[in-house]
Each structure stands twice: as structure tokens, then as C-alpha cells.
Amino acid sequence: MNEPSATFQLFGLTFDWTTIISTLVSMAIVIIVAAVLAYKPSIRPNKRQNALEYALDFIKGVLGDSLPKDMARQFSLFGFALFLFLFVSNELGIILQVKFGDVTYLKSPTAQPLIPFSLAIMSLAVAHGIGVKALGFGGYLKNLLFKPYIAMFPINVVEQFTNFLTLAMRLFGNIFAGEIMLNLIADSMGWPGHFNGIMTIVAVPLLVLWQGFSLLIGAIQAYVFVMLTGVYISQLSGNE
Questions:
Q1: Whole-angstrom distance, CA of residue 92 vs CA of residue 110
Q2: What pTM value is reported for the model?
């Protein structure tokens, strides 16, 4: 499904307004939420502090399933920021889409290929960097390419590409498909602006159900992405 897009050129590169606006809105929401939760911490934790601590403990638990306890604590803030950004980005287009003419300027950033692939590169770069730091460059290459046997070299090389593709494509595919279905259901209603007979009567509850399901999928995909990031950090740092 190809939608019209609004782009501009800068330094010979093409930039998409939808990707930029959607990503900036998601980032702003994340920053505001984090700032509100962490505002004026006190010795006696308030509800906001408790919510923040519960979220951090949840991320520590997710990472703790694949990482040693000290590493899970070390990467809990990174995992929390990644989870929060993914959660907001996944849900944004389910809750709100802004369209002018034929161009949608605001939707889920993760429903556009660039963002999931960029996040996958970032997460794997962190994992590979930790591998080098933990094992040294020689040990990192040995663990990356020749574990458990030298004969596994071709499979290990392919695995690195498949890790990247599955991490990015799983996120993109689920969020993109969710938005496509919502738009198709909304179109069958004659949305927006007028009643479309029996199709509207049928589509309204279906739209509500699918929207709720998509919200759940968005949360699950954020969880899975952070969990797999922890798994890759564990694998590449020799902590399997």
C-alpha cells in the first residue's frame, strides 16, 4: 500500500516529513512522560516515583531473563528509554493520525521502515560494542564467528544478518499491518464525515476491537524488541 508522501531535499538527501514529524512527536511524549515521572524526587516516594520504579524494575526483569544481574541493572535505563519510545511510537498511529489532503503527516513512526531498521541497527551496535568491551576484539570475533565450532562460521555470519532483519521486520510488519487494517475498516465506514449504512453499523465495533488488539500488539512488540536486545547483548558478550 503506497501512500503519497511529502518530502524535501537537503544536502542531496531526501527527507520525509511524516517520518520526521511522527518521530519528533513520539520523542516529545517520551521526554514529557519521563520528566513528569522524575520531577522533584523525594525521600518518601510519591506515586510518580513509584510508577517510574515499577517501570524500571519491569525492564530489569525483562533484561534479567537473558543477562547477569549486574548487566541487567547496567542496561535498565537504556532498556527503559527504548521500551518507552517503542511503546509510544507503536501506539501513536493507533490512537491518532493527522492527514492533510492525501498525505498522512502523523502516524506511528514504527509503521515506516526507516525507524524500525534504524532502531535495529542501534540495538545491535550496542550489543556488538558490549561484546568487544567484554571479550576484547579477538575474543569478540571468536565468539561472533566461530562459536561453538569453526565449521559454524558460515551459519554465524548469516545469523547476524537474520538477527537484524527479524528485529526490524517483526516490529515494522506488525505495526504497519495494524494501521492498514484500521484504515481499511475506517474506509468501509465512510470515515470521516458521513454515515455509510450497514457497513458503519458493522464496522464500528470491529474498529473498536481491532484498535484494542492493535494497542496490545504495540505493547507486546515493544516488549519483544527490548527482550531480544537483551538476548543479543548476552550472546555477543559471552553470557549465554
A1: 9
A2: 0.85
In the chain, where are the structural domains located? 7-236
For 143, other C-beta atoms within 10 Å of its C-beta total 19
Radius of gyration over every alpha carbon of the chain, rounded to an integer in angstroms: 21
Residue with cell 493520525: 97
DSSP string spanning 10-41? Answer: ETTEEEEHHHHHHHHHHHHHHHHHHHHHHSS-
In the block, which residue shows the cell 516529545? 28
Distance between start and end Cα atoms, the chain: 41
Q: CA torsion 209→210→216→222, rounded to 10°?
A: -170
Determine the distance from the C-alpha atom of residue 7 to the mean position of all C-alpha atoms in its chain, rounded to a whole number: 23
**91-137 pLDDT, tens digit each:** 888 888 787 877 788 889 999 899 999 999 999 999 999 999 989 98
SS3 8: strand
User: What's the average pLDDT block by block, 10 residues per block, for the chain (240 residues)?
Assistant: 70 86 94 84 76 87 86 88 94 82 84 92 93 90 84 86 92 87 68 47 65 84 93 84
Q: Which cell numbers in the block locate residue 99? A: 492527514
Compute the distance between CA of residue 196 and CA of residue 178 in angstroms, rounded to an integer. Answer: 22
Q: In which residue are the cell numbers 516490529 written?
A: 171
In whole angstroms, what is the distance from residue 226 CA to residue 228 CA?
A: 5
User: What is the DSSP track for 72-83?
Assistant: HHHTHHHHHHHH
What is the Cα–Cα distance from 192 to 35, expressed in whole angstroms?
35
